[in-house]
């Protein structure tokens, strides 16, 4: 029988379809992994910003995960927008209950337009309850600064921040370079507790980067679900997001979404 790989995303909904659950499911599908979701919050959002945030009850989040865990199961799990300390604790308990060790945590805090997607008091719950369970964490530079309490300007700063995050129990840390001030390259740094690896691409000058972080972390999750190593998964995710940014769709009036089918099209020829 053909093996079907399954990935679960626990995240918020982006009505505009560029980030959140929608970006995750599109990415899973493009990478031939069966996608499942547990919604934590509904956001009213488009390319111009976030117009509303409506969190779900802890019970609703728990029950969705329970429904998946007791029937379908998951080869890898990703978390995105978790919004509150209560939801984080509930998600961590379910991850433990089902023994999901291929966990990718994208520590979503603030949308590109500045809207908060995680309550400030939830940061310590993230560090205490979820990070010790993570196989991979994928902060952008501002998120890594909040989690470590240090300012990050140079590559050496990123090394130090990655070490501090590793000390919290995360097995692999990827500090992304989208927010770096390098005009030529976008460099993501991976730390596995022993060595650093660098994933470098040409920086594309574009306004259409809504959902890049979600898409990148979802691609890592999909590849882990298929049994790839973390290094291989990050390599594919980097190629996936590069294609998605490069072949922008040009829709909406603000920060447009990336193109989730670009990687597949590039690999068809
Ligand atoms: N302008 C760009 N050109 C090429 N790659 C980019 C660009 N902006 C972001 N990336 C890549 O997209 C991914 C997400 O990065 P980042 O923007 O830092 O995350 P977030 O969306 O969470 O803020 C990373 O792999 C990063 O290197
Ligand atoms: C519902 C929801 N989840 C996550 C995000 C943040 O997504 P990200 O990939 O970091 O992209 P930007 O918002 O920074 O463009 C979101 N916006 N909505």
From TrEMBL:
Family indicated by similarity: Belongs to the ThiD family.
Annotated source species: Thermaerobacillus caldiproteolyticus
Identification of the protein by name: Hydroxymethylpyrimidine/phosphomethylpyrimidine kinase
Top-rank EC class of the record's enzyme: transferase
Metabolic or biological pathway: Cofactor biosynthesis; thiamine diphosphate biosynthesis; 4-amino-2-methyl-5-diphosphomethylpyrimidine from 5-amino-1-(5-phospho-D-ribosyl)imidazole: step 3/3; Cofactor biosynthesis; thiamine diphosphate biosynthesis; 4-amino-2-methyl-5-diphosphomethylpyrimidine from 5-amino-1-(5-phospho-D-ribosyl)imidazole: step 2/3
NCBIfam families: HMP-P_kinase
Entry EC number(s): 2.7.1.49, 2.7.4.7
Domain Pyridoxamine kinase/Phosphomethylpyrimidine kinase: 14-259
GO terms for cellular component: cytosol
Biological process according to GO: thiamine biosynthetic process
Catalytic activity: 4-amino-2-methyl-5-(phosphooxymethyl)pyrimidine + ATP = 4-amino-2-methyl-5-(diphosphooxymethyl)pyrimidine + ADP; 4-amino-5-hydroxymethyl-2-methylpyrimidine + ATP = 4-amino-2-methyl-5-(phosphooxymethyl)pyrimidine + ADP + H(+)
InterPro entries: HMP/HMP-P_kinase_dom, PM/HMP-P_kinase-1, Ribokinase-like
Gene3D superfamilies, per the entry: 3.40.1190.20
The keyword NAD is annotated on this UniProt entry: no
PANTHER family: HYDROXYMETHYLPYRIMIDINE_PHOSPHOMETHYLPYRIMIDINE KINASE THI20-RELATED (PTHR20858:SF17), PHOSPHOMETHYLPYRIMIDINE KINASE (PTHR20858)
Coiled coil feature spans: none
């Amino acid at each position: 029988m053909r093996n079907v790989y399954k990935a679960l995303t626990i995240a918020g909904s982006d009505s505009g379809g560029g980030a959140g659950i929608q970006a995750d499911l599109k990415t899973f599908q493009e990478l031939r992994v069966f996608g499942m979701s547990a919604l934590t919050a509904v956001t009213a959002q488009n390319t111009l910003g976030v117009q509303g945030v409506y969190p779900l009850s802890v019970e609703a989040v728990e029950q969705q995960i329970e429904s998946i865990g007791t029937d379908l199961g998951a080869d890898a799990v990703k978390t995105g927008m978790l919004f509150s300390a209560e939801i984080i604790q509930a998600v961590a308990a379910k991850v433990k209950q089902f023994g999901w060790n291929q966990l990718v945590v994208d520590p979503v805090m603030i949308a590109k337009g500045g809207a908060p997607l995680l309550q400030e008091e939830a940061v310590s719950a993230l560090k205490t309850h979820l990070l010790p369970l993570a196989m991979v964490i994928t902060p952008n530079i501002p998120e890594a600064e909040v989690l470590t309490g240090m300012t990050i300007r140079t590559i050496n700063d990123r090394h130090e921040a990655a070490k501090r995050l590793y000390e919290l129990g995360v097995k692999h840390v990827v500090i992304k370079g989208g927010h770096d001030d390098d005009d030529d390259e976008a460099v993501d740094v991976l730390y596995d507790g022993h060595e650093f690896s660098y994933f470098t691409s040409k920086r594309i000058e574009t306004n259409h980067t809504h959902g890049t972080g979600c898409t990148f972390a979802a691609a890592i999750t999909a590849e882990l679900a298929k049994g790839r190593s973390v290094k291989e998964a990050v390599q594919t995710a980097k190629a996936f997001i590069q294609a998605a940014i490069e072949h922008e769709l040009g829709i909406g009036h603000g920060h447009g979404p990336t193109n989730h089918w670009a990687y597949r099209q590039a690999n068809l020829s």
